[in-house]
């Protein structure tokens, strides 16, 4: 497809013959995470769906890389407007949705830091598991000194801060819609910009707005993660994992911001800026696709439920449970414990 209208170059270009190998590789790489997710779901001690966007991204990437492998062997399909648009949507939005999962875990870190021993609950029965400081962790070198912790730390409980953290992270998640919506608009109308200069400009502007806002929010979330390291009950591994994931998200956002000013007059052009040169494909695969894979891998491979002291659904409550609910949960745990003793 070639015309006189210069439209935004497709991020990742279109699949050429040389893209067959990388497409197969990334399809298998993303697919390798699916059995791990299934295994996590099967084990009640690691069962969690707080990273739901990560597994959706994995499944979607398996599909698009399979399609890219097919397109690379079928030249006529490379210039399909509908497939090109689908590719741009599927490539351009997942890094933002992965950041949503990070905010969910960030919320768990902040909320757990406000909980005292009275709020310690069975992680399988509650959205928030027992809040345990690093010095109380069985694997901690300071475990033997846990009995010497100050009463202030052991008895700390702050419902007001807990409510504020929940409200604030809800707002932060909604703020990501300011990046998602322009991204959807810009990429969905991508094919329309191929033969309409006005639409082409709108696509470029929308995509830039999306990636700019996304990068700003990702960096802001990183600041919140760094700040969380000073909160009680927050372990270093919790912050480190989130910072690495956010760095991967930032890599995708910055790659897009650097590349998206390019325009082309043909999807199959091999001119610099078309997205189809060897160097442009290499940077796309490394700084966008590989960084996205690493982000989802860090959300699916580790035992997120154990690391972040969360339940299956994360901290889904807007407010603390009522006393009647807490009493019911306590009795259920006691009954469960009694059944366990009888079976043993």
Task: Describe what this molecule looks like in 3D.
The chain is mainly alpha-helical. It has helices spanning 20-31, 33-42, 52-72, 81-92, 94-112, 151-154, 159-175, 177-188, 197-228, 236-259, 278-300, 304-307, 323-343, and strands spanning 2-8, 263-266. The protein has a two-stranded antiparallel ribbon with strand order 1-2. Helix 5 runs parallel beside helix 9 (197-228) and helix 9 runs antiparallel to helix 10 (236-259). The model is unreliable at 120-155 (pLDDT under 50).
Per-chain topology:
Layout: E1 2-8, H1 20-31, H2 33-42, H3 52-72, H4 81-92, H5 94-112, H6 151-154, H7 159-175, H8 177-188, H9 197-228, H10 236-259, E2 263-266, H11 278-300, H12 304-307, H13 323-343
Antiparallel strand pairs: 1-2
Helix pairs in contact: 1-3, 1-11, 3-5, 3-11, 4-8, 5-7, 5-9, 5-10, 5-11, 8-9, 9-10, 10-11
Question: What's the short version?
Answer:
The chain has 344 residues and is mainly alpha-helical. 61% of the residues lie in helices and 3% in strands. It is elongated.
Percent helix, as a range, is: 55-70%
Sheet with most strands: 2 strands, antiparallel
Q: Which structural class do you get from the secondary structure elements? A: mainly alpha
Number of helices: 13
Q: What's the SSE pattern?
A: EHHHHHHHHHHEHHH
Question: Runs with pLDDT <50, length 5+?
Answer: 120-155
Strand content: under 5%
- DSSP, total strands: 2
Strand order of the largest sheet: 1-2
Shape: elongated
Distance between the termini: 70 Å
Based on CA atoms alone, the radius of gyration comes out at: 23 Å
In round numbers, the mean pLDDT is 86
């Amino acid at each position: 497809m070639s015309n006189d209208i210069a439209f935004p170059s497709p991020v990742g270009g279109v699949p050429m013959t040389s893209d067959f190998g990388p497409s197969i590789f990334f399809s298998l790489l993303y697919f390798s995470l699916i059995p791990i997710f299934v295994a996590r779901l099967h084990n009640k001690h690691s069962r969690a769906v707080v990273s739901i966007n990560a597994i959706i991204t994995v499944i979607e990437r398996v599909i698009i890389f399979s399609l890219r492998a097919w397109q690379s062997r079928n030249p006529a399909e490379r210039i399909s407007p509908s497939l090109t648009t689908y590719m741009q949507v599927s490539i351009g939005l997942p890094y933002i949705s992965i950041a949503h999962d990070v905010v969910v875990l960030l919320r768990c870190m902040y909320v757990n830091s406000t909980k005292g021993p009275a709020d310690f609950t069975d992680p399988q029965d509650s959205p928030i598991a027992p809040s345990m400081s690093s010095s109380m962790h069985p694997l901690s070198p300071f475990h033997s000194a846990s009995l010497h912790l100050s009463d202030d730390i052991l008895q700390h409980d702050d419902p007001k801060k807990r409510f504020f953290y929940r409200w604030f992270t809800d707002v932060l998640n909604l703020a990501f819609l300011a990046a998602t919506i322009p991204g959807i608009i810009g990429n969905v109308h991508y094919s329309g910009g191929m033969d309409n200069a006005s639409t082409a400009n709108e696509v470029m502007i929308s995509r830039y707005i999306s990636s700019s806002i996304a990068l700003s929010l990702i960096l802001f979330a990183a600041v919140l993660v760094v700040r969380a390291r000073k909160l009680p009950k927050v372990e270093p591994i919790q912050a480190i994992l989130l910072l690495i994931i956010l760095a991967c998200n930032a890599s995708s956002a910055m790659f897009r911001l650097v590349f998206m000013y390019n325009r082309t007059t043909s999807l199959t052009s091999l001119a610099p800026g078309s997205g189809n040169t060897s160097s442009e494909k290499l940077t796309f695969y490394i700084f966008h696709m590989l960084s996205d894979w690493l982000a989802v891998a860090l959300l699916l491979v580790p035992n997120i439920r154990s690391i972040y002291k969360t339940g299956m659904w994360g901290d889904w409550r807007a407010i603390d449970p009522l006393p009647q609910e807490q009493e019911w949960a306590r009795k259920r745990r006691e009954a469960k414990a009694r059944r366990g003793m009888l079976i043993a």
